[in-house]
Amino acid sequence: MSETTRCFNCSKEVPLGVERCPVCGFSFLGGRIEAIKEATELNSQAQLLDSRGKCDESVPLYRKAVELYPEFVVAWYNLGIALGKLSRHKEAMEALGQAIALKQDFAAAYAARGDVRASAGDYDGAVSDYSMALELYPDYAQAYYKRALAWMEMEKTEEARQDLEDYLFYKPHDARARRRLERLKGGA
């Protein structure tokens, strides 16, 4: 049995000694491995800070991680979420945009960018991002719910009602969503 390692980009098992990941094409050459390992460690430390509600402390670590490894999609995504939690909307949008540019089928990054846009009051943009997340991942229940909230802010009752029904298909026991749907059906 040959020895393997994990690709730093896609996390798939790859044989030791290969020059490129056979799954995602990531290059292991050019002396980048140590920088990538450091970036991975910084990302892990930052995630721990995020889990403790210390986004203001995690942001510099994520920034250093993406400086060391500019193709680190997950670190860009995490940076965008942390910046969004700090209401640094423009910076959050840029970080999430970078994650999307690197991985165009990253549904969660579109949804996170939708969250930032909604938080900034850009409900049209939020609907667009949630819609893209749903196009990429049609079973993304949370995106239906969040898009429904954005529709409600825009006073688009029929669209909100449809998204809440779709959300409740996946999460039938969510009483909060069910109450919102009943209010919409009642004309409130």
Question: If you had to describe this structure to a student in words, what would you say it looks like?
Answer:
By secondary structure, the protein is mostly helical. It has a domain at about 125-188: Serine Threonine Protein Phosphatase 5, Tetratricopeptide repeat, CATH 1.25.40. It contains nine helices and two strands; from the N terminus they run E-E-H-H-H-H-H-H-H-H-H. It has helices at about 35-50, 55-70, 75-85, 90-100, 105-120, 125-135, 140-155, 155-170, 175-185, and strands at about 5, 15. It has a two-stranded antiparallel ribbon with strand order 1-2. Helix 1 (about 35-50) packs antiparallel against helix 2 (about 55-70) and helix 7 (about 140-155) runs antiparallel to helix 8 (about 155-170). The longest helix has 19 residues, at about 35-50. It starts with a strand and ends with a helix. The model has no long low-confidence stretch (mean pLDDT about 90).
